[in-house]
Each structure stands twice: as structure tokens, then as C-alpha cells.
Amino acid sequence: MSSNANTSQKAIDEQQLRIDLAAAFRLAVHFDWHESVANHFSAAVSDDGKTFLLNPRWKHFASLCASDLLLLNTDDDTVMTSDNAPDPSAWCIHGNIHAAVPQARVLLHCHPPYATALCGLKDPVIKPIDQNTARFYNRVAVDLSFGGIADDNAEGQRIASAFGNHSIMMMGNHGVSVAAETVAEAFDQLYFLERAARTMVLAYSTGQPLSIMDDDLAEKTAAGWDDYTDMSIAHFEQMKQQLDLTDSSWRN
Questions:
Q1: What is the per-residue pLDDT for 6?
Q2: What is the pTM (predicted TM-score) of this model?
Q3: Distances from the Cα of 116 to the Cαs of 10, 79, 112, 184, in angstroms?
């Protein structure tokens, strides 16, 4: 393939990432995962993950379009002194994770109600009490070392280290971060994570003892979800179609 063809393909790939990420922002509003003009989603563009797309500072998810996304590089922190600087917390978390965590091609960080409620508990672990909660059995990092608003490099590096080799992290006293190879897979993980957290909160609210699966059954159920990647992609594509029924401006 010629260099011109390679360049053209990269441009196409970046544009598709922009479109998919913009859809994720709009869907976060639809599912009430957003919070004021805060929180942030990103997607790596370069092979090393250091060049990535990120939402601009203080733009509401409901109005975010593909062309609004910033193209940043973790090695160029001069952007933080520019007129178009991203939110310091977004730069701190996403810049460090994209640079240090290979599996974080796409990173969704937000404070959805039920998952954040769990993150405010002394034990935020999602217990395997049904097939959705079991999806996350032994597959989630738990960070209980909250250091305040993540707006300095040291806290960003600590968060990246806490992520380890996981693709999901429950951030104690904070919120959640979900990483995946594609926007579709990250969106689907976040969707089921919040539903699992809702199930946990509702189960806890009854005051009755939880019926927790034994380890073998929980692992079998969690492993069974690995065969459903195609479902994740179909789910996201159909949700994009739902967005288009009322407003397709996110694609611009």
C-alpha cells in the first residue's frame, strides 16, 4: 500500500472514531450517565496510544459533535496553556492512561448514578448475583486510594497504575473508567456495568442477604460473556440508529 493510501486510511479511521465517540457522548446523555459539563471520553488514534481524541473543556455531551473533538498528544503538554486547552482532569486521567495502558484504545470515564453509588461504599465490588453482575466477576480493578480531583500528573500516573491489566475500574469515592479496543465495546461494557450496579444497589436496598454465586459458576458465567463481542457491536450500531431518528447532528 502506498504512503498516500496509508494516510488516507488513517484519516478515514480517525473520522470513524470521531463519529463513534460523538455517538457515545450523546448516548451518555440518553442513559443519564453525564454530569453537568464534566466527565470525558477519549480514543487513541496512534499505534502507541499517545495521540488521542478527547472532548473539549466544558462542552455538554448533548451538543457534542464529531468535529468538536480535540486531537492531542500526551508528549505535548503545551496544549494546557493554549486557548483550546482540555479540562485539566481529562488531560491528567486520559493522557496518562493512554500512554501507559495498552488495552485502553478507547477510554470512557464518567460518574453514572448507580456505579458511582457503589463506588461510595466501603466495598464497591460488584457481586455475582445474576448473569449481568457475574459478567464483571474478577474482571474489575478497584481503586480505593482517591486523591482528590485528578488534575495533576502524579494523580494521573497513580490512576493509570491502578488500572493495571484490567479494562474496567471502579474508582472509590469517584466514578468509573472503562477501556476497550473499540468505542462499541467500551460503550457496551459501560452500559452493562451501570445496569449491574443498579441491580446491586436495588438488591442491597432490600436489606435481605445476597444470593452470591460460587466461584466456579461466577467464572463460568463471566467467561460466557466473551462470546458476545458481536452483540456489543450490534447494540452500538442500533443505538446510533436510534440517535439518528431524532437528531443526526452528532455526526458532523
A1: 59
A2: 0.93
A3: 36, 30, 6, 22
